[in-house]
């Protein structure tokens, strides 16, 4: 492992700083004290700090003057400390590709004073884990980009220093603009010139870092202070590590990380100054300065970073009016006053800072989530789909993507989503709205409410809702629209309960009979799909359609899968093509397959059969881990489960694999061809369906759902199906992971004297070797003897007993995704 450090005489360096503080006019004389300072690189070549400057034909005095703005700065000691060590960031967050190439390097610097008071709602101990003793002493900070047309030599020891690309410059400007929205800082870009002008923070490419590093503000080498070095070979956007990437990729987060070093922050796990962050909190959901890269990458400063920088530089006035944050279909995309904080096509973690006003979070546009959402309005709280929350065995919690709220800010109002929402109130007056007659809003839970809070049900009259005590909780039944459970409503005196607004004189709610069936699905068959994309128009209208389209027939033997390229709910169309494994030529003969489109949600057939459909976003593959899916409602027995990749974000050949299904849930991941099993895959949306095992009639069509048992191999296996008049439409997925070779399913219809039978087999590819034998696996299947529209009724446990209500509440609370694999994502 490569290690380097700049080692100076600590006593002389500290004395130099003190003299500089006393008299700037004697700089030349004081710089002479640096003659005995030495540079050491792994104990090899040793040169004086002064000699490095002379080799570039520039004196130390000129170097200081050239650091634009430095000469007018004032220095003082932070917390009465005179620590003279400056770390240049060379951490795995910055250096990591497959593994850290470099370790930390130490530099001596001048200590500075910090400004603002500590946040009262985040522990000072937490803030301290990110603070060094150094910061810029003025709130206006210049920055620049090394200009190779002006400078032929660089004052540091880095090799092949050069200018960053325009794309990186754009990213840096965007990051600094975002910092200005929460910290009381003004960044002024300086054009580098022949007169020796450049910024206090300076960005450049060089060959020294394994990936990237930065120098803290000021040091014995004042010229180096604030310099950010990026490895030249990563100035691209071809993979997640490239610095030209949009927010949501590691390269962009690294630019944030290095900028924060240049502003004076350190790694939270660093114990050199006697403090370190609790390992259960040390992850990128809290700070970009972490080494723990769980979940998607951050696109902004995270809550601890904002608190630390505001502690040093003060807080910015930002969004001081009455703002409404309007969220799109996911919790990591929002606009305020019609503007987004940034534009990206990636899933991302981000933080909101809002300094004043009465503010509203509008979640009415979020897509339906079978697992529901969590909206925690407290400082440092998160706004996420429950499926994006991961709790490890260690007790560490992180969030794959979503939006967090900064400390020292308040949100007053919430407009709910159409899914099951758990809303956690904060200490100010909150109003919970979005409940409108005739609008399905799910079964919501309100937590930590008090007399300051208001539940706005003014669209409903008192006679049209049912209020039922359930222990200490109050359950408000809104009929077919959903329900609201106010936790601990009766656990406090009446004077301390939230207000519930109902309209006494409003007309009765026009309810829909909960037993009325509605069109939720359709099934059909395609007989002519090949490598060319094909689009079909659906018969029904859907809000959140989920598509299943496997197995594939066996007219051509090259390993193939039906790849969905677009699900357009606005136009009710689906586009797909037949995708061969990467090692094949991509051309394929016509194949047949059955497809089923189902509205996401939980449904019940007339015979009582339970059906649940949902989606999740993941970049996991079999070599990196599994996603654990918890059903929203417990099945009485293990259901038959289907899964299918819904998107085409990464055009590498990919299928799903499943395992560990029971009545409560199952695990799923993606799988590329065998030769690429360790190559990783971009994030895709996976659709899943679970249905009670058994057989019956669905809208006049005979159907059967079940599991084959552990019997299916690479040889053809006849499905044990009930009697169908004709060969049924078949949907199936491999349900176990007994064999780790990349595998999919193929089927064929065999005509016989007593009708057609269906056989299936497991298909391996030959991308890694010529062997295609596969051990026995379970296969889950759904067969139905007909095509067309299918109906069901919405399944609502709250329509029954209080015991069912409580059970459903517990399920909703316990349905947060758990991941014991602790796989690091987003990095090669």
TrEMBL record:
GO BP terms: proteolysis
CDD domains assigned to the protein according to its UniProt record, in alphabetical order: ZnMc_serralysin_like
Superkingdom assignment: Bacteria
MF terms in GO: metallopeptidase activity; zinc ion binding
Domain Peptidase metallopeptidase span(s) in chain numbering: 132-315
Record protein name field: Peptidase metallopeptidase domain-containing protein
Protein's organism: Hyella patelloides LEGE 07179
Lineage of source species: Bacteria, Bacillati, Cyanobacteriota, Cyanophyceae, Pleurocapsales
């Amino acid at each position: 492992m490569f290690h380097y450090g700049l080692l100076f005489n600590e006593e002389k360096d500290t004395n130099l700083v003190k003299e500089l503080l006393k008299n700037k006019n004697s700089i030349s004389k004081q710089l002479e004290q640096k003659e005995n300072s030495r540079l050491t690189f792994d104990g090899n070549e040793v040169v004086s700090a002064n000699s490095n400057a002379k080799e570039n034909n520039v004196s130390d005095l000129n170097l200081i003057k050239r650091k634009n703005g430095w000469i007018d700065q004032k220095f003082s000691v932070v917390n009465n400390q005179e620590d003279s060590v400056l770390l240049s960031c060379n951490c795995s967050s910055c250096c990591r590709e497959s593994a850290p190439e470099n370790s930390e390097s130490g530099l001596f610097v001048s200590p500075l004073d910090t400004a603002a008071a500590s946040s009262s709602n985040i522990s000072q101990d937490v803030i301290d884990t990110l603070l060094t003793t150094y910061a810029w002493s003025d709130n206006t900070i210049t920055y620049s980009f090394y200009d190779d047309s002006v400078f032929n030599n660089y004052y540091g020891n880095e090799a092949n220093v050069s200018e960053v690309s325009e794309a990186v410059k754009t990213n840096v400007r965007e990051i600094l603009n975002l910092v200005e929205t929460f910290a009381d800082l003004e960044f002024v870009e300086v054009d580098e010139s022949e007169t020796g002008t450049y910024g206090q923070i300076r960005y450049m490419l060089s060959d020294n870092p394994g990936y990237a590093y930065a120098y803290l503000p000021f040091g014995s080498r004042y010229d180096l202070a604030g310099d950010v070095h990026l490895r030249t070979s990563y100035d691209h956007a071809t993979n997640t590590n490239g610095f030209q990437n949009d927010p949501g990729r590691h390269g962009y987060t690294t630019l944030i990380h290095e900028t924060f070093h240049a502003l004076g922050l350190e790694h939270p796990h660093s114990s050199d100054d006697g403090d370190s962050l609790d390992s259960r909190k040390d992850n990128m959901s809290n700070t970009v300065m972490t080494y723990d890269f769980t979940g998607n990458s951050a696109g902004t400063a995270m809550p601890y970073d904002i608190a630390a920088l505001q502690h040093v530089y003060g807080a910015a006035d930002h969004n001081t009016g009455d703002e409404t944050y309007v969220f799109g279909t996911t919790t990591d995309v929002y606009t305020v006053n019609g503007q987004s904080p940034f534009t990206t096509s990636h899933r991302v973690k981000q933080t909101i800072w809002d300094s004043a006003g009465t503010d509203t979070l509008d979640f009415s546009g979020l897509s339906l989530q079978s697992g529901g959402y969590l909206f925690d309005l407290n400082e440092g709280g998160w706004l996420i789909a429950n499926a994006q929350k991961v709790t490890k065995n260690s007790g560490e919690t992180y969030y794959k993507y979503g939006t967090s709220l900064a400390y020292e800010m308040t949100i007053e109002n919430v407009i709910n989503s159409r899914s099951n929402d758990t809303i956690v109130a904060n200490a100010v007056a909150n109003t919970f709205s979005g409940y409108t007659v005739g609008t399905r809003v799910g079964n919501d839970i309100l937590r930590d409410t008090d007399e300051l809070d208001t539940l706005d049900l003014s669209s409903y009259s008192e006679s049209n809702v049912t209020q039922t005590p359930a222990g200490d909780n109050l359950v408000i039944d809104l009929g077919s629209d959903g329900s609201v459970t106010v936790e601990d409503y009766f656990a406090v005196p009446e004077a301390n309960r939230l207000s519930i607004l109902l309209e006494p004189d409003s007309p009765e709610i026009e309810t829909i009979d909960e037993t009325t069936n509605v069109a939720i699905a359709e099934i059909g068959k395609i007989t002519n799909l090949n490598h060319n994309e094909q689009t079909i128009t659906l018969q029904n209208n859907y809000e959140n359609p989920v598509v299943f389209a496997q197995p594939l027939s066996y007219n051509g033997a090259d390993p193939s899968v039906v790849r969905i390229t677009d699900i357009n709910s606005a136009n009710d169309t689906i586009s797909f093509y037949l995708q061969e494994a990467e090692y094949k030529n991509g051309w394929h003969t016509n194949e047949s397959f059955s497809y089923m489109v189902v509205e996401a949600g939980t449904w019940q057939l007339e015979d009582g059969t339970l059906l649940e459909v949902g989606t999740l976003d993941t970049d996991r593959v079999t070599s990196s881990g599994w996603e654990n899916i918890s059903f929203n409602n417990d099945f009485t027995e293990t259901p038959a489960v289907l899964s299918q990749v819904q998107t085409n974000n990464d055009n590498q050949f990919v299928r799903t694999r499943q395992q560990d299904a029971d009545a409560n849930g199952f695990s799923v991941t993606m799988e590329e061809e065998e030769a690429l099993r360790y190559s990783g895959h971009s994030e895709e949306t996976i659709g899943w369906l679970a249905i009670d095992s058994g057989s019956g009639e669905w809208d006049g069509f005979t159907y059967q759902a079940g599991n084959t048992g552990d019997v299916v191999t690479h040889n053809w296996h006849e499905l044990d199906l009930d009697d169908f008049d004709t060969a049924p439409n078949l949907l199936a997925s491999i349900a176990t992971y007994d064999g780790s070779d990349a595998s999919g399913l193929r089927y064929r219809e065999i005509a016989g004297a007593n009708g057609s039978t269906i056989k299936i087999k497991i298909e391996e590819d030959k991308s890694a070797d010529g062997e295609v034998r596969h051990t026995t696996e379970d296969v889950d299947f759904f067969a139905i003897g007909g095509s067309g529209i299918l109906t069901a009724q919405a399944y609502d446990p709250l329509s029954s007993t209080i015991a069912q209500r409580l059970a459903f509440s517990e399920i909703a609370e316990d349905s947060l995704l758990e991941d014991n694999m602790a796989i690091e994502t987003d990095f090669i």
